[in-house]
């Protein structure tokens, strides 16, 4: 079974790089208990490691492939939050922006959408209330954890109650 994956701080990586520069990659491997491949990678990334915060453990996550596109889409998303937004709308808008920018190989798939939301700290949540309107009455039904079937039943009961109360012809008795 392969060894368990570990993460190392930027400070530790810089210590390994310094040791490797003085004595070589193999001695650094033995001294610090990491593979020679990691030592080589960290030596290549020394400039990045120096600019990183010393306690940072990893340099995870790829940068956006199309940063200008993502900036435009992010601006649009911030404007749409109040009006309601779904991932489908987000993806369609991103495809439209990509066409405007003449980006040919952009698909705006579900995985891109998920990564975009993580990169930009955007969350799209399902609506948690359903409004039932009548000509004379308006109620908001809060639905925190109801199943779809019970939601349907609840809405039907409220609609029936509204119809009986105001004698509206919305549902037949």
Automatic annotation (TrEMBL):
Signal peptide as annotated in the record: none
Pfam short name (any one): HTH_Tnp_Tc5
Superkingdom classification of source: Eukaryota
GO molecular function: sequence-specific DNA binding
Keyword entries, A-Z: DNA-binding
InterPro entries to which the protein is assigned, alphabetical: Brinker_DNA-bd, Homeodomain-like_sf, HTH_CenpB_DNA-bd_dom, RD_transcriptional_regulator, Trp_repressor/repl_initiator
Gene3D superfamilies the record matches: Homeodomain-like
Residue span(s) of domain HTH CENPB-type: 57-126
UniProt-listed SUPFAM superfamilies: Homeodomain-like, TrpR-like
Descriptive protein name: Pogo transposable element with KRAB domain
């Amino acid at each position: 079974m392969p060894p368990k994956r570990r993460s190392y701080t930027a400070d530790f990586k810089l210590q390994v790089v310094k040791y490797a520069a003085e004595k070589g990659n193999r001695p650094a491997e033995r001294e610090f208990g990491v593979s020679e491949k990691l030592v080589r990678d960290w030596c290549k990334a020394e400039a990045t490691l120096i600019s990183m915060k010393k306690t940072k453990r990893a340099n995870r996550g790829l940068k956006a492939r199309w940063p200008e596109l993502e900036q435009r889409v992010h601006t649009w998303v911030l404007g749409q939050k109040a009006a309601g937004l779904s991932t489908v709308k987000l993806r369609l808008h991103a495809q439209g922006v990509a066409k405007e920018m003449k980006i040919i190989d952009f698909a705006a798939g579900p995985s891109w959408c998920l990564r975009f939301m993580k990169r930009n700290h955007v969350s799209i949540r399902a609506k948690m209330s359903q409004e039932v309107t009548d000509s004379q009455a308006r109620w908001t039904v809060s639905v925190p954890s109801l199943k779809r079937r019970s939601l349907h039943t609840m809405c039907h009961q409220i609609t029936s109650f509204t119809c009986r109360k105001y004698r509206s012809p919305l549902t037949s008795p």
